[in-house]
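Exam revision sheet. Question 4 asks you to relate a sequence to its structure. Input first:
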Amino acid sequence: MNKIEKASLILRIALAFSFIYAAISSFISPQNWVGFIPDSLPGNFITDNYYLIAFSVFEIILGLWLLSNKKPYYASVISAIVLFAITIVNLSSIDIVFRDVSLFLAAVALSILAKDKK
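Answer key, structure tokens:
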């Protein structure tokens, strides 16, 4: 395994851990996470808890996709988009989501590594 493959593995594990941990934590303690659901989402038929569950399932799938190393470029680009959106939507909570900026940059770095590999 060369240095680029090792770096890619470490970045994929870091991102996957972040997504999977947040998802599992939101299932265990949804009250700690529901406040991060944007107010702009329609709430007539779907409650914030259902949005949280759906997003948590998405995060688990994304985390597992990153770990699988199948089409890592696309997984990393989607990760970057999600982390960027989380940061933008929650700018008022920047004291909490500032870590997502670093994770966003890690996802961008992974996408560069994966794109160069193609």
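Marking note for examiners. Residues 3-117 form one domain.
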